[in-house]
Amino acid sequence: MTKLPRISLRAILLTLLIAFGVSAMSAEETPEQFEQRTKWWREARFGMFIHWGIYAVPADATDLEGKHRVAEWYFSNKQMQVKDYEKFAAQFNPVRFNAKRWVQMAKDAGMKYIVITSKHHDGFCMFDSKLTDYTIVRATPFKRDPLKELAEECRKQGITFCFYHSIMDWHHPDYLSRRPWEKDTRPADDADLNRYINYMKGQLKELLTNYGPIGVLWFDGGWEHSAEELRSAEVNAFIRSLQPPILINNRNRLPEDFSTPEQFVPAKSMTVGHLWETCMTMNDTWGYATNDTNWKSSETLIRKLIDSAGKGGNFLLNVGPTAEGEFPPESIERLAAIGKWMKVNGESIHATTKGPFRRLSFDGRATTKGKTLYLHVFKWPGEGLKVTGLKTKIVSARALDGGESLRITSTNTTVDGVEFPVLAISKPQKLDPAATVIELRLAGPPVVDEPEPVVTAETDGSYILKAAEADIHGATAQYEVSGLHDYIGAWANPADYVTWTLNVSPQDAARRYTVEVTYSSLAQYEGSSFEVEFAGATLEGTVMSTPATNRYRTEKLGELEARGGRQTLAVRITQIKNGPAMSLHQVRLVPLP
Predict the structure, then answer these.
(1) Quick one: fold of 463-591?
(2) What is the pTM (predicted TM-score) of this model?
(3) 341-358 per-position pLDDT tens digit
């Protein structure tokens, strides 16, 4: 088969996938092959992100007004000219860099893969590119290729090596658009974005042919252009022609293999078959900054890892090395603490799938591995640990840390006239401040029948119906996360609808509410119509466009009256104009005085 038909077929497939918002696979790939190709990544669950570049020289996470920003955006934060920013390259000499030590710290922490910045938005290349002199080998006193050394060390230690690569490039003369303060000093009259994409493809070829097998190509900085302008289908097909097994994320404006929520773990599991990975910093910034001391605790980071695994996702935890080539001591301390916990409890994270419960009755999460169920208890309940809804017989129960056998007693609870099983688990003598893991060996895969979650009123009497808490009915609409936002998207079939169950307290009977709907929609999809049905009344609305998919508008549809008791609110699309009707973020019921 020639290359051209393959790209053409893939472009067609990706167009369909955009409409339906699901993870992609190559045009020749079956679902079984997709499962096999992504198996290592899904089983890994935990990886290290590394943001390293010449922005580590100033190591400053503030802008011109002193407001806190992320350090790797130093060029933009300080509104610099290219020639002034370039001086940091001559000052970048990471003589204390030790690839073996870096990889060992990742491995000891229980991480299975490393994703490092080959080039960030500033355009500086942390590898030996032959297409520009703006590289660590040619423009710095260091004269070495640290990514080559890391690739070799990862292979030695059994860690999968991966590349982050920024589409945005503030240094390259052909990248558009210019920063606002550069429009007069660096005119864009001769710039050519297509020529830049060819340059980017050349660098991707270097990265994918000179460093051995690469597990992931992690794009970023694609939000200034459309997938068509970035030639993303072509670029992704080109990447796969060089390394067919590689995984590609969703940040060049195509869904590809996995989504990338940033700095938060989604409130619930993604749609079945939709792969995702939360990326998160240990403090507030990705690149190293001396003035960012807001470090998350080790306990918080361990719980974020557990939260991701419990919802079927991966956790990519960032380190920002210094200009000298060392991990900050605060990062080293946290990696060691996570590693200590993982050494005992890692089997409850690696190669697990999401927990079977919609909502646990204790503060914690659950993961599954075949016939084994792991309960991660963040704080042991004062009334004792209870699990509601597990119907599968328990063969044995023990604490992972220490192996202490635990007692199980069984009772029942009744909710809305329906009985559900309740299991009480005895308290182990040894508790972990981050998370105590209980291993339940079952007679078969876990089967759960639990009470339906309900939305209760906020302190002000309002009801906030979040995308993460919706029940989705249909074939296309699904819960999604993009960057810092979550929503119900890919809503391309008018037969699909979403519902929430509310517990409207009796004292609020016959109270009137204003209904607010928060959503986003691209201009080409504007004009679809929808309705909100609640308490026997229906309100109608028309989808209006927003500046971007991550820019929401809140529309007041009108007022309605709700009686007390359990009620269902539904949002339905009544007419679709051109494509996905909208990305629904939330519905809010605001009580009237």
Answers:
(1) Jelly Rolls (2.60.120)
(2) 0.85
(3) 999 999 999 999 999 998
